[in-house]
């Protein structure tokens, strides 16, 4: 087993004990037509990479907005755009009311983890204007087609929008349930819309059917050890939105778990390594039983 998998074992035995107990032999012994392990792992690796990119996009959204509002009156800001000039760089630009000048610029370099900030007022570049116009075209096209399909809970917060380049021909706009309440991870009320490089819609996806608001502290005010939610058969894997929201709101938690009814097992995401593994019910049962045996032996 890979090192990243071994790191999870102790937490799995403790956190999934109740779920493991609920699995019985009739469930464990049934035949499941799941993909080969390497196919599942390849899918998880790709989803983890995309989920981490989405997390970066949302963090840049938060950081750049907070930074610009410390120095600029919101009434003097005419718009903004965040995009990826390259695979490993991100850029956020805020414009004045006339959309002629850049009043704030934030650049993030993913490979080094460093960033730069500039409050120097300068003329908007042609590339920045093109990206701003493309963003608005994508938004208008998305809302004209799917506005009635989007559901959010205003009691928790307003939706957040993020754009992630998937490949040379696809830009994916994510729509996430925002959270203004403390100590909540918002799984659900999440969507994505794919566009081509001209801003035309290619695909729409709803990731969860509703909002699953999971607390990060218990009723006594103590940190929760982990989170757990299940996916229906039409959603077999952990999603990029699951990963992004867990990384954003997890507090002290290290892992989150998804029960995949389609794969008949558990997907475990590890925050520190930005990686995920899949374990069957049988493997989870063995881990839990071994942990119980170790307890009795002590």
Q: Are there runs of 5+ residues with pLDDT below 50, and where?
A: 1-11, 16-28
Number of helices: 7
Largest β sheet strand count, sense and barrel closure:
5 strands, antiparallel
Q: So what's the overall shape?
A: globular
Instruction: Please give the alpha-carbon distance between the first and last residues.
Output: 26 Å
Q: What's the number of extended β-strand segments?
A: 15
Strand content: 25-35%
What pattern of helices and strands is seen along the backbone? HHHHEEEEEHEEEEEEEHEEEH
Summarize the helices and strands and which ones pair or pack:
Layout: H1 3-15, H2 17-22, H3 25-28, H4 37-71, E1 77-86, E2 89-96, E3 101-109, E4 114-118, E5 122-123, H5 126-146, E6 159-167, E7 170-177, E8 184-188, E9 191-195, E10 201-206, E11 211-215, E12 227-231, H6 240-249, E13 255-260, E14 265-270, E15 275-280, H7 281-297
Parallel strand pairs: 12-13
Antiparallel strand pairs: 1-2, 2-3, 3-4, 3-5, 6-7, 7-9, 8-11, 9-10, 13-14, 14-15
Task: Give the key terms.
298 residues; alpha+beta
Describe the structure concisely.
It contains 7 helices and 15 strands. The protein is of the alpha+beta class and 298 residues long.
What does this structure look like?
The chain is globular and about 70 Å long. Strands 1, 2, 3, 4 and 5 form a five-stranded antiparallel beta sheet that branches. Strands 6-7-9-10 form a four-stranded antiparallel beta sheet, sandwiched between helices. A four-stranded mixed beta sheet has the order 12-13-14-15, with helices on both faces. 31% of the residues are buried. With 298 residues, the protein is of the alpha+beta class. Helix 1 packs across helix 7 and helix 4 packs across helix 6. It has seven helices and 15 strands. It has one domain. Helices cover 36% and strands 32% of the residues.
């Amino acid at each position: 087993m890979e090192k990243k998998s071994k790191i999870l074992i102790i937490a799995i035995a403790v956190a999934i004990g109740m779920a493991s107990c609920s699995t019985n032999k009739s469930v464990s012994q049934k035949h499941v037509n799941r993909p080969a392990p390497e196919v599942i792992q390849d899918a998880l690796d790709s989803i983890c990479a995309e989920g981490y990119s989405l997390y970066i996009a949302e963090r840049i959204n938060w950081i750049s907005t907070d930074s610009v509002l410390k120095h600029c009156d919101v009434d003097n800001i005419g718009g903004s755009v965040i995009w990826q000039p390259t695979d490993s760089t991100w850029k956020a630009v805020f414009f004045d009311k006339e959309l002629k000048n850049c009043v704030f610029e934030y650049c993030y370099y993913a490979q080094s983890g460093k960033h730069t900030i500039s409050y120097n007022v300068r003329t908007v570049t042609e590339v920045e204007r093109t990206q701003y116009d493309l963003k608005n075209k994508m938004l208008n096209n998305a809302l004209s087609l799917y506005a009635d399909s989007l559901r959010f809970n205003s009691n928790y917060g307003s939706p957040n929008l993020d754009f992630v380049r998937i490949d040379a021909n696809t830009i994916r706009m994510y729509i996430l349930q925002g959270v203004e309440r403390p100590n909540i991870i918002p799984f659900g009320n999440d969507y994505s819309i794919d566009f081509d490089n001209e801003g035309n819609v290619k695909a729409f996806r709803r990731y969860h059917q509703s909002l699953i608001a999971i607390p990060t502290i218990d009723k006594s005010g103590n940190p929760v050890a982990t989170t757990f939610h299940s996916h229906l058969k039409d959603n077999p894997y952990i999603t990029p939105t699951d990963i992004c929201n867990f990384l954003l709101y997890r507090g002290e938690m290290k892992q989150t778990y998804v029960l995949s009814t389609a794969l008949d097992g558990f997907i475990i995401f590890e925050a520190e390594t930005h990686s995920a593994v899949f374990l069957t019910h049988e493997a989870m049962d063995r881990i839990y039983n071994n942990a119980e045996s170790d307890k009795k032996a002590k």
